[in-house]
């Protein structure tokens, strides 16, 4: 077990170090990317981003312009394959609504990107060239640029140019050629994509403002919580210290995400270090939050002073969840997600989903047992707060399941990312839901002069007796009963009366 833990930790560290060399940015770099066979064409995907149309500009400032710019694009081929001239290598830029204008088929057969002999006979294209038609909705699109190798030429450059974006949409860049003898060539250079407000991709641009608002929300929650904590610090219980840690981690996470997007928007290159810190603080926060909810559900600090033998199991679950979540978040936010196939993403998502389901099952099983204990011991104040806590969790789980179903529907019906302008709502909702649950927990367990009322006590019902017994008028006791010494049951290790001993003494 020790070896597996160390191996898992070292794996995360190695992944973290490897990802430091990658950036996900609106500056798309091509470092010797090789063409891949797709149908009858050879393709390199140059990028896909949502771009808003340029905004009206009355100051002649280029800052509000949207564009895709090609810079220093060079195609290279091995010297041993340079003894012939080639057909053109194309760079094609199109909006997703115009995807049907790329490629074609003869007599309703299989769709091809490169012109086939049958299509050439019909006179609709030239054999060996890519098939494209003018867009019916966007005049002048798609944009197609070409470069060809001459005999004995090892590399050829594509002329640098900037394409202004005048229509909002999801734009794609592909490098395509139809020459089988050029299968070993590669592409180098970069393309720069810009929105009117900066270099953030269109689907990510709203998240910068969102994380700004969430940072403010966490600050306001922190002001409330820390002021209560300072006023009643003598009455603070261990659970409230854990909540303080979660709030602090949340403030740091939101701040790092905001600065991550702000720098990305300003420079066009995503700051790897800031992203890693944002991911790590978020993962730690989610792990601690789940562990706190689980421990509260078990009655830690309320009906039991420790977790006993369950401590190692709880920590093992928390450590496993942290490792799985950290790897998933690093892959999705630091590395380029498009580098991974669908199966690879599922490989990272499934462990986190399984662990989340296990957390939920364990939490509600423990909550049921704790509620039964509180009801049996008539700890009414604690029972009331636990019922409210249970109701909040039930609502959160139901909403989570509903939103997960919507997310699956959203992604399954948006194959070409046509609804990219609303895609930011998916991750934003999870942040709002977790923050709302945290606010409810803060309201239930806020530090106050009665905080110790909800803490574990060896006196059992002491706090509740002060509240409940004053409402009951005591009846007179017979003399013989008053004169008998009081018999107090002994308590077992879990704080409950030892039933056998009580029975022996009373007999």
Question: Strands, helices and their partners?
Answer:
Layout: H1 2-19, E1 27-34, E2 36-38, E3 41-51, E4 67-76, E5 89-95, H2 117-121, E6 143-147, E7 155-158, E8 161-164, E9 169-177, E10 186-194, H3 205-231, H4 238-267, H5 272-297, H6 311-333, H7 342-376, H8 380-412, H9 425-444, H10 462-468, H11 479-483, H12 499-506
Antiparallel strand pairs: 1-10, 2-3, 3-9, 4-7, 4-8, 4-10, 5-6, 5-9
Key phrases:
single chain; 507 residues; alpha+beta; Jelly Rolls; Rhopdopsin 7-helix transmembrane proteins; five-stranded antiparallel β-sheet; 12 helices; elongated; disordered N terminus
Q: Outline of this structure?
A:
This protein has 507 residues and is an alpha+beta fold. It is 47% helix and 14% strand. Strands 1, 4, 7, 8 and 10 form a five-stranded antiparallel beta sheet that branches. It has a five-stranded antiparallel beta sheet with strand order 2-3-9-5-6, with no helix packed on it.
Give structural notes:
Helices cover 47% and strands 14% of the residues. With 507 residues, it is α+β, with helices and mostly antiparallel strands. It has two domains: 23-55 and 62-192, Jelly Rolls; 201-461, Up-down Bundle (Rhopdopsin 7-helix transmembrane proteins). Strands 1, 4, 7, 8 and 10 form a five-stranded antiparallel beta sheet that branches. Strands 2-3-9-5-6 form a five-stranded antiparallel beta sheet, with no helix packed on it. Helix 3 packs antiparallel against helix 4 (238-267) and helix 8 packs antiparallel against helix 9 (425-444). It is elongated, with a radius of gyration of 32 Å. Residues 1-25, 335-342 and 459-507 have low confidence and may be disordered.
